[in-house]
Amino acid sequence: MKRPEGFDERPVQPDAPAGDARAPRQRRAPLIPRRPTADQQADVQEARPEPAPQDTVDETATSSAPEQPGASARDRAGAFAGAAGRRLGAGLGAGLSTVKDRLREYTPDEDHAGPRPAADDAPRGDGAHRPDGGAIVDDLHADALHDAHESPIGAGVRAAETAREARVAKRRRRLLERAEVRRFTRRSRHRRAAWITAASIVLVFGVSILVAVFSPLMALQTIEIKGTNRVDETQLRQALSDQVGTPLARLDFDAIKRDIAGFPLIESYVTEEEPPHTLVVTVTERTPVVAVKSGSSFDLVDPAGIVVQSSPKQPANMPVADVGSAKLGSSVFRTMTEVVLALPSAVRQQVTSVKASTADDVTLTLTDGSTVVWGNPDESAAKAALLAALVKDHSARNPGVVVEYDVSAPDNGIIRAKK
């Protein structure tokens, strides 16, 4: 037996029976529509055509219609296929509407994998026994709905990617706009920053001045005294106590000077503020350089003629000043003290007295009885160096001999034998 060659491989139709005998009915397999591609799915999602009105096929009427005498089995199968196609179009339209409603419920970031119904290869009940082809139409409708429910999966992924790309683009655009704004406003921002900095400095400076001058946070609370030996520290602190409670920037230094002037033994002083509450007063006491006989005691006097203290005995290593009719603090007295201060320490320790009737005839007396003619106080440093050299030379040549040293001319020293 030969098999006919062809593409659809349709089974060979048996010959129609002769006479009025009805041809046996053959069941055709359901036509499975082709699944749309990705582009077709996008077209389906973007625009849904309005379903065209379908002609309702009255299967009952078709099945119950009397068969024409000349109708063959192929004609009846064609009629059934046409009815099935019209029902398939109506089912696809309803399926696409359902798919669109389902897509609206999805968010861009939602992953959805719709369940795919498993294929059912088993016979569908008694549909194979229906003479009107109902089983064929039901199979076609089910396959169309199955394909329609599968199409939103790719669309949801593309929608999520599109939304993500939109967010990235929006963020990039916002960053670019911000960079452009900063670039075009750089000069104004710099100018504003400079004004703000200057205003901040002025404000801080002003607040600091207000706090230092008027605030009790910088008020005087402690007075420290340094450098006192003969001066009573407690009395000095008590004399300055009227400044306590005054801000350090508003201390009355004229009043402080008047208070310290009441202590004659203080030659000079230095004040120093130590924020936030301390005032340090460093004093320099007067140093006596000569002794002046006053009755049975000796007054120790500094170069200004101020009596520093009194002593019943003549102090060692301190010459006695014979002022005669001159007063303490006069020009003659100051000349004598100036000469004593110009002497080297080694020679000063040998001086026992100093005498002057005028400011140009100062005379010194040494411990061995020798005298020194000094003259006026001019060039005292050169005269002191010359006197030290003459005393050393005389001690080496004639020790113990009383002489007279004349240094009134510093460039020509003379040693005379004393009569």
Give the overall shape, derived from the CA principal axes: rod-shaped
Order of helices and strands: HHHHHHEHHEEEEEEHHEEEHEE
Query: Rounded to an integer, what's the Rg over CA atoms?
Result: 66 Å
Low-pLDDT stretches are 1-21, 38-71, 107-137
Largest sheet: 6 strands, mixed
Strand order of the largest sheet: 7-8-9-10-11-12
**Integer average pLDDT:** 75
Per DSSP E runs of 2 or more residues, the count of β-strands stands at 12
- How many H/I helical runs? 11
The N- to C-terminal Cα distance equals 185 Å
Percentage of residues in strands: 15-25%
Structural category: alpha/beta
Q: Keywords, please?
A:
disordered N terminus, 3-stranded mixed sheet, 419 residues, 12 strands, alpha/beta, 42% helix, 6-stranded mixed sheet, 11 helices
